[in-house]
Design a protein that fits this description.
There is one protein chain. It contains seven helices and no strands. By secondary structure, the chain is an all-alpha fold. Helix 1 runs antiparallel to helix 3, helix 2 runs antiparallel to helix 3 and helix 4 crosses helix 7. It is rod-shaped.
Length: about 200
């Protein structure tokens, strides 16, 4: 498997694109992490409500403990105070706990979406192109390198002359068909190799 072209400029460009993709994914991950922590910090509101409710309930419980020892009426009064504390402060504390849990869930969801949506969009565009490039490079390397005999060079030159766009052929030779007819294959072989991102050396 060939991952990178062996033409220096194309190899550098491909490596830069790969590095930029990795960096972009890492930046998106950090951004999602930041969003998660920023939203999750709002749990302090729910925690404050919980603490306030607990303080109210603790106050009622403390009062109930003090009157509980009073003969005859102490027990019912203490029970009433504890019930009042549970119905007021306890309810508020439970609401605060539920608020904290909701903030945690929302923070996790927003952080995940902040990372996942743009990262998936980026990778859905980059990865298929990169895999196609790797397949092209691998297959071209199997066919073109090395070219062991003149007949093979002729067949590759024919493939170049008949398949490549004219502007790509003319970048290598002024007369591609004339070169093919005269047996001058180097420019045509170089053109098709460069088209695939390779440099082909002629075998000894």
């Amino acid at each position: 498997m060939r991952l990178y072209p062996n033409i220096p400029v194309r190899r550098a460009n491909t490596a830069v694109r790969d590095a930029a993709t990795v960096i972009a994914v890492l930046v998106l991950a950090l951004l999602g992490f930041w969003v998660y922590h920023t939203v999750d910090s709002l749990e302090i509101l729910g925690r404050g409500v919980h603490d306030a409710g607990s303080a109210v309930q603790d106050g009622f419980d403390a009062a109930a403990d003090k009157v509980d020892a009073v003969p005859l009426a102490g027990g019912p009064i203490a029970d009433g105070l504890r019930s009042a504390g549970e119905n007021t402060g306890g309810t508020v504390a439970d609401a605060g706990t539920r608020g904290e849990q909701r903030v945690h869930r929302v923070a996790l969801l927003l952080g995940f979406l902040t990372f996942l949506l743009p990262a998936a969009t980026l990778l859905s565009r980059v990865v298929p192109q990169r895999l196609a490039q790797i397949r092209t490079l691998t297959n071209a390397a199997r066919v073109l390198s090395p070219i062991e005999d003149e007949e093979r060079r002729r067949l590759v030159a024919m493939r170049a002359a008949f398949a490549l766009p004219y502007e790509r052929l003319l970048a290598h030779t002024r007369d591609p068909l004339g070169d093919l007819a005269a047996g001058r294959y180097d420019a045509l072989v170089g053109a098709i190799a460069e088209d695939a991102g390779l440099r082909v050396t002629r075998a000894a």
